[in-house]
Amino acid sequence: MAHGTLVLGLGNALLADDGIGLHVISALKRVVAERRSSTPVFIRDGGTLGLSLLPEIDAATALIVVDAANFGGAPGDVKVFDSEAMDVQVGGAKSSAHELALADLLCAARLNGSLPRRRALVGIAPSSVEWGLEPTPEVAACIPLACAKIQAIIERWAT
Which residue, among 90, 36, 97, has the nearest Cα to 63 in the 3D structure? Predict the structure, then answer.
């Protein structure tokens, strides 16, 4: 992959709101396809791949991760954690395997000197992480807002 901004959606598509990062990425692909930018943007469904995503982070100059996150918000709340705030959020208590994998992934990137200086987590508060192929209605409703926040970050970093 060439240098640019990597937008990485994480989650387990079999666990309702836990897969919200993947649903946002799917919607974002349609939006970004219509947009022209001087900065390359790579949109990736990372699912639960964990450390196998390290080469893609190594190649990125900026990183945006979208994922379900427990930050005390109401279901469907969207919050952006920039740089060190992302590190703190990811470093907290884990409720799923891919949260642990994201912490490991960022740590590995930091250890090999490739952790992008520009990085952000777009966290979405889940309602249910029980079996289910679709997010709950209140979490699904946040997809356009999450896409808008990601686009705003990309535009801010492009200047």
Answer: 90
